[in-house]
């Protein structure tokens, strides 16, 4: 029997969070962590977590699985269970609403701060704006972000300053627009980032890269932003 | 007595997926006070899972491409019960809507000329079926839905749309005149129930694929909008038409895009034979989805299935080479490795037809206005209610949707609904009021659930519901089985109406939400079952063993299911496009 | 854009660059001294004194000292604004942080004055 | 309902000691009353205390409260830090430590340049086993901080930013630092 320890907290009834242990029979199958949660919820409906697509593209079920952030729906037990134990905790650093559900307001606010939309005031053509395959390729590894917050909540700099440091997810998107040949707001975007917190709290810890379920690399994107800042300032 | 908080908007959109956000964007841009009520954060909506692309004649892959060819394909794909005025509108306005998305920033893949990359999809032809396979599906690698949904969310951030994120819409508020004047919604975070009042209410809640046990749909696809409409007494159209996508990963149900076959992949049986050559000699693996799905089931039933159980076939991609797969289908490679434990670069993917899309829904006109029918069979607009996207049935998909047309449907008709509401708001429609009794009526279901003491749990009942639907209303259907299924559903209804929750806490109570969702699933399932039994023919996705042929004499029409007396009536299909001659029904071969 | 009046150069980029340049200078100085000490195992006071009596060595030492102070300020300021925050400690954090920053400044100035005294103070 | 009270071991708790120490030191220096050897022992032992004060901070536990209502999951003992994270964390720790250690290095420089006698005192002090140990600790901190810093500089040029690259870089930095620290030990003894 697999021992599943889950972080429980219900503000209506609990004074403080606690760990609850469940026994779970995997029947020898290499289930995804989300499958385990779904079956546990069928027995204990008070268990709260988010989930939607169950295939790793919607970013709902980011959580801390045996110490490492990841998406429950695409994390097989064989990759995370140690000593027959599955330990599930909410994403670190964000306020817990209930059980595995965290309040992501600060995370979304940082995303909004980078003005995550294409800015181009020139009159739009009757067809699409042309973009070469090479220019389009620059967006690969950036636009795929699913906003699951695994990276930002693995980042110590984001733990300490979630209101000031944009965090890996937001910065990856900042660079997604800086890198887009169709976006013309580069200068404004850069000047909004040149303070000691927004970008420069990144110390290259790479916790973000280690946990990203989509295999993206915010550290590299942040490096590119820094280079762009450097180029525009020297 | 209703004593709940009321908040007011000009327009509210229920559902934060592609259609909902496109409608909201249109309204918010025009300065009207717009709110999106969405039970998940918008980018978690199921649109995010769309892979292959958005089909539209933007004439990139072929400069000669014509939206009329696309219209022809769509009419034919619908097995001739798609409304031709709506299809004409979608195909002709499509390019504009797609270019708007590109201008908003959608990161489409590109051709060498810098234009949007288009790939071939099933059911696509040139020159009204006479010019061979077309490539008309605009793609952002195999993550088009994700790219589209995020772009729309970004556009809404720019336009300052109000998002009521993680709010669950429970039931429509209908006043004495039969007009819809808003919705009752729960703020999931703290459990507060609010009356959200609006001059226009748009249902954009997507599909209900979760009525089936095996589905490509997300957990959240529970048909909440259709359930609400049915409970409010409004009819649904063509709800028996459920698309089974040919390539769901066997066991997991995860979707593998048709784009795989568009890029040159094909299906093989246990003998390694490319069996689609037998079923559709011309289009082969790129025949309509209904045709491919049925052929696969026939192969499996004939004992040609793969695996120890012989219960699936294989999708072969390895011959395309690693480079093509990693650049054009990176997401598929990822999903296949995760869910099928198969690397498509080396081995074929085990696939099986899986419930994918609800062609039916709330009937609307091309302005997104929801329709009902008078006793004499005349269409009437439901005041204050709109629908778009998968929840609606305009109907552009008829009995079978073509790949890539769902994304086009949702942007074109999300936009159209937004434009129309904008216009009526500009002309000045007054805010109709609801009496406390109206609100109480809309609260009844929630109140019952909140005070329930005895009853079964949602998880158990949901499983039973899904099993019934899977067994009696799947790829192939048969009258006597369906009647049995309908009986079982009727018994299940009593139990589901009495579903109970033991957890009655306020903060993020997902048990309460799941119980409410289950009741929506039941509404959709029952409508599906009854309409499917009534339609005594095989057309598009609706394939009956006991009526194997299409019956244009009796059934070249929409079905309308009325929830009150569970009656099914017929509604005429529109054969009057505005700019051209209608496409007359023909034998549908690929 | 997050405003900050206590960071070294108020611009993240400027701070970042100063810290890197300073690091490079300090690394060079450390390597130089290490090599010097290793190649002169029987170092006498006179040799050592003469080395530091040369103008270039004094300038090199001074630049290193300045590098150290700016490098340390930027680094420790980041440490203080990471941990001594209202978010972590409540409102008392602001007062604590300002106090710590003043202390930090005091020590930095002490180091600076003392360092200059050492480098330029002897004959 | 009362939210759980925040417990918080501050990493930089040692700071106040740094300041206290430097103030004391400067007072002592100005007075010039201590004999050199006693001074050295006094200061080096202070540095040792400071280092050990920083050690518990490595396993420190933070439980945050926000709005005094919602708990936050930030029990650092339950969160895996990748190797790159450890390299970065020790970089910060040694940085803090070196800010104090610099006083000792400056003192050595000062004394070594001041006069023949004070130069000799520095030499004598570094013959004392305890002083040797302390000097080794300071230089080890310096060596580690420098190696990790150079890794940072290399990464600023875009090298070793991938997941694999970062981890390899971190391992190289750790191994290099350990070798250097060992060599410094050999050199001192």
Secondary-structure map with pairings?
The complex is a heterotetramer of chains A (234), B (590), C (123) and D (189).
Chain A lengths: L1 E7 L9 E7 L8 H11 L18 E4 L2 E4 L5 H4 L4 E5 L6 E3 L2 E2 L2 H9 L19 H5 L18 H5 L6 H12 L7 H8 L13 H5 L6 H16 L1
Parallel strand pairs in A: 1-5
Antiparallel strand pairs in A: 1-2, 3-4, 3-5, 6-7
Chain B lengths: L4 E10 L3 H12 L4 E5 L15 E2 L11 H11 L6 H21 L13 E8 L7 E6 L5 H15 L3 E4 L1 E8 L5 E8 L5 E11 L20 H8 L4 E2 L4 E8 L9 H4 L3 E3 L7 H4 L9 H16 L8 E4 L5 H7 L1 H11 L8 E10 L3 E2 L5 E5 L5 E9 L4 E2 L11 H23 L8 H16 L6 H15 L3 E2 L1 H19 L12 H25 L8 E2 L7 H4 L1 E6 L4 E6 L18
Parallel strand pairs in B: 1-2, 1-9, 2-6, 9-17, 15-18, 19-20
Antiparallel strand pairs in B: 3-5, 4-5, 7-8, 8-9, 10-21, 11-14, 12-13, 13-14, 16-17, 21-22
Helix pairs in contact in B: 1-4, 1-11, 2-3, 3-11, 5-15, 9-10, 13-14, 13-15, 14-15
Chain C lengths: L11 H28 L5 H9 L1 H29 L2 H4 L2 H30 L2
Molecular structure report:
- The complex is a heterotetramer of chains A (234), B (590), C (123) and D (189).
- With 234 residues, chain A is α+β, with helices and mostly antiparallel strands.
- Chain A is 32% helix and 14% strand.
- In chain A, the strands form two sheets. Chain A has a five-stranded mixed β-sheet with strand order 2-1-5-3-4, covered by helices on one side. Chain A has a two-stranded antiparallel ribbon with strand order 6-7.
- In chain A, α6 (167-178) packs across α9 (218-233) and α7 (186-193) crosses α9 (218-233).
- The relative contact order of chain A is 0.13.
- Chain B is an alpha/beta fold and 590 residues long.
- Chain B contains 16 helices and 22 strands.
- In chain B, the strands form six sheets. In chain B, strands 1, 2, 6, 7, 8, 9, 16 and 17 form an eight-stranded mixed β-sheet that branches. Chain B has a four-stranded antiparallel β-sheet with strand order 11-14-13-12. In chain B, strands 3-5-4 form a three-stranded antiparallel β-sheet.
- In chain B, a hairpin with a 5-residue loop joins β7 (167-174) and β8 (180-187).
- In chain B, α13 runs parallel beside α15.
- By secondary structure, chain C is an all-alpha fold.
- Chain C has a single domain, classed as 3 helical TM bundles of succinate and fumarate reductases (Up-down Bundle), CATH 1.20.1300.
- Chain C contains five helices and no strands.
- Chain D is mainly alpha-helical and 189 residues long.
- Chain D has two domains: 1-70, no CATH class; 76-188, Fumarate reductase/succinate dehydrogenase, transmembrane subunit (3 helical TM bundles of succinate and fumarate reductases, Up-down Bundle).
- Chain D is 70% helix and 4% strand.
- In chain D, α1 (14-31) packs antiparallel against α2, α2 (36-54) packs across α5 and α3 (83-114) packs across α5.
- Classes of the chains: A alpha+beta (234), B alpha/beta (590), C mainly alpha (123), D mainly alpha (189).
- The C-D interface holds C 20, 23-24, 26-27, 30, 38, 45, 48-49, 52, 68, 72, 75-76, 79-80, 83-84, 87-90, 100, 103-104, 106-107, 110-111, 114-115, 118, 122 and D 6, 8, 10-12, 15-16, 18-19, 22, 26, 62, 64, 66, 92, 95-96, 99, 102-103, 106, 109-110, 112-114, 116, 119-120, 142, 146, 149-150, 152-153, 156, 187.
């Amino acid at each position: 029997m697999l021992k599943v320890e889950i972080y429980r907290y219900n503000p209506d009834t609990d004074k403080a969070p606690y760990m609850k242990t469940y026994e779970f029979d995997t029947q020898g199958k290499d289930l995804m962590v989300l499958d385990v949660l779904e079956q546990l919820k069928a027995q204990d409906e008070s268990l709260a977590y988010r989930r939607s697509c169950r295939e790793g593209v919607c970013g709902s079920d980011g959580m801390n699985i045996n110490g490492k952030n990841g998406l429950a729906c695409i994390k097989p037990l064989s990759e995370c269970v140690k000593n027959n134990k599955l330990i599930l905790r909410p994403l670190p650093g964000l306020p817990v609403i209930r059980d595995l559900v965290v309040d992501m307001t600060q995370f979304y606010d940082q995303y909004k701060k980078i003005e995550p939309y294409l800015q181009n005031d020139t009159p739009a053509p009757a067809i699409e704006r042309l973009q070469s395959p090479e220019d389009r390729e620059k967006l690969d590894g950036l636009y795929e972000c699913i906003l699951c917050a695994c990276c930002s909540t693995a980042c110590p700099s984001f733990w300490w300053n979630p209101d000031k440091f944009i965090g890996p997810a937001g910065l990856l998107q900042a660079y997604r627009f800086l890198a887009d040949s169709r976006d013309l707001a580069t200068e404004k975007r850069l000047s909004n980032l040149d303070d000691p917190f927004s970008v420069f709290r990144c110390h290259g810890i790479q916790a973000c890269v280690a946990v990203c379920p989509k295999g993206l690399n915010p550290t590299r994107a942040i490096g590119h932003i820094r280079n762009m800042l450097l180029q525009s300032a020297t | 007595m209703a004593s709940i908080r009321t908040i007011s908007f000009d327009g509210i959109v229920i559902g934060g997926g592609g259609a909902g956000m496109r409608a909201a964007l249109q309204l918010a841009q025009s300065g009207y006070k717009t709110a999106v009520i969405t039970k998940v954060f918008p980018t978690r909506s199921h649109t995010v899972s769309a892979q292959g692309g958005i089909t539209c004649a933007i004439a990139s892959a072929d400069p000669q491409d014509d939206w009329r060819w696309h219209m022809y394909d769509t009419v034919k794909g619908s097995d001739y019960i798609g409304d031709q005025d709506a299809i004409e509108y979608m195909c002709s306005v499509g390019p504009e809507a797609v270019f708007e998305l590109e201008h908003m920033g959608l990161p489409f893949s590109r051709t060498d000329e810098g234009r949007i990359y288009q790939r071939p999809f099933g059911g696509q032809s040139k020159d009204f079926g006479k010019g061979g396979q077309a490539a008309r599906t605009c793609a952002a690698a195999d993550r088009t839905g994700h790219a589209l949904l995020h772009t729309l969310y970004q556009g809404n951030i720019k336009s300052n749309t109000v998002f009521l994120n993680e709010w669950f819409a429970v039931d429509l508020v209908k006043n004495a005149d039969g007009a819809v004047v808003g919705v009752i919604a729960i703020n999931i975070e703290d459990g507060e129930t609010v009356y959200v009042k609006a001059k226009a209410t748009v249902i954009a809640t997507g599909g209900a694929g979760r009525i089936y046990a095996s589905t490509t749909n997300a957990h959240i696809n529970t048909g909440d909008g259709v359930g609400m409409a049915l409970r409010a007494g409004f009819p649904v159209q063509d709800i028996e038409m459920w698309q089974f996508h040919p390539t769901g990963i066997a066991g997991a149900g995860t979707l593998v895009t048709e784009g795989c076959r568009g890029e040159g992949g094909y299906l093989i049986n246990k003998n390694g034979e490319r069996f689609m050559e037998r079923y559709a000699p011309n289009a082969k693996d790129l025949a309509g989805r209904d045709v491919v799905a049925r052929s696969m089931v026939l192969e499996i039933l004939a004992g040609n299935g793969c695996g120890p159980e012989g219960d699936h076939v294989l999708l072969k991609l390895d011959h395309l080479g690693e480079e093509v797969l990693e650049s054009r289908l990176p997401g598929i490679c990822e999903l296949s490795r995760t869910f099928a434990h198969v690397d498509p670069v080396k081995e074929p993917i085990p696939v099986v037809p899986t419930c994918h899309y609800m062609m039916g829904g709330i009937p609307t006109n091309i302005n997104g206005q929801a329709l009902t029918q008078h006793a004499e069979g005349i269409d009437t607009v439901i005041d204050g209610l709109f629908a778009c996207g998968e929840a609606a049935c305009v109907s552009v998909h008829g009995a079978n949707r073509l790949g890539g047309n769902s994304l086009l449907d949702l942007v074109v008709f999300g936009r159209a609904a937004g434009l129309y509401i904008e216009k009526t708001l500009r002309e000045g429609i007054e805010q109709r009021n609801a009496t406390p009794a109206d609100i109480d009526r809309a609260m009844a279901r929630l109140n019952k659930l909140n005070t329930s003491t005895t009853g079964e749990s949602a998880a158990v009942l949901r499983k039973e519901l899904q099993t019934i639907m899977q067994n009696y209303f799947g790829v192939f259907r048969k009258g006597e089985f369906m009647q049995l299924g309908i009986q079982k559903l009727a018994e299940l209804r009593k139990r589901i109406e009495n579903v109970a929750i033991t957890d009655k806490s306020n903060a993020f109570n997902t048990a309460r939400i799941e119980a409410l969702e289950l009741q929506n699933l039941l509404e959709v399932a029952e409508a599906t079952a009854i309409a499917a039994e009534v339609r005594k023919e095989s057309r598009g996705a609706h394939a009956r063993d006991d009526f194997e042929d299409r019956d244009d004499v009796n059934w070249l029409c929409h079905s309308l299911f009325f929830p009150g007396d569970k009656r099914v009536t017929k509604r005429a299909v529109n054969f009057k496009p505005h700019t051209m001659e209608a496409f007359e029904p023909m034998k549908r071969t690929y | 854009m997050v405003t900050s009046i206590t960071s070294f150069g108020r611009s993240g980029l400027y701070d970042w660059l100063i810290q890197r340049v300073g690091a490079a200078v300090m690394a060079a100085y450390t390597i130089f001294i290490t090599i010097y000490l290793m190649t002169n195992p029987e170092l006498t006071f006179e040799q050592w004194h003469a080395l530091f009596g040369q103008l270039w060595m004094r300038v090199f030492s001074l630049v290193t000292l300045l590098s150290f102070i700016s490098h340390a300020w930027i680094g420790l300021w980041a440490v203080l604004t990471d941990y001594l925050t209202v978010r972590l400690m409540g409102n008392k954090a602001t007062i604590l942080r300002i106090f710590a920053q003043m202390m930090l400044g005091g020590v930095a100035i002490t180091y600076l004055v003392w360092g200059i005294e050492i480098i330029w103070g002897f004959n | 309902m009362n939210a759980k009270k925040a417990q918080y071991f501050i990493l930089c708790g040692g700071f106040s000691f740094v300041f206290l120490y430097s103030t004391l030191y400067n007072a002592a220096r100005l007075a010039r009353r201590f004999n050199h050897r006693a001074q050295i022992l006094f200061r080096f032992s202070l540095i040792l205390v400071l280092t050990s004060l920083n050690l518990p901070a490595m396993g420190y536990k933070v439980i945050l409260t926000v709005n005094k209502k919602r708990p936050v999951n930030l029990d650092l003992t339950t969160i895996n830090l990748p190797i790159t994270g450890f390299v970065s964390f020790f970089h910060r720790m040694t940085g803090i430590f070196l800010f104090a250690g610099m006083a000792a290095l400056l003192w050595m420089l000062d004394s070594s340049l001041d006069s023949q006698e004070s130069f000799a005192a520095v030499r004598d002090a570094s013959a004392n086993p305890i002083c040797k140990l302390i000097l080794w600790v300071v230089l080890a901190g310096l060596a580690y901080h420098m190696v990790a810093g150079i890794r940072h500089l290399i990464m600023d040029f875009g090298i070793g930013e991938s997941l694999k690259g970062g981890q390899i870089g971190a391992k190289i930095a750790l191994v290099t630092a350990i070798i250097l620290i060992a060599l410094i030990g050999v050199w001192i003894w």
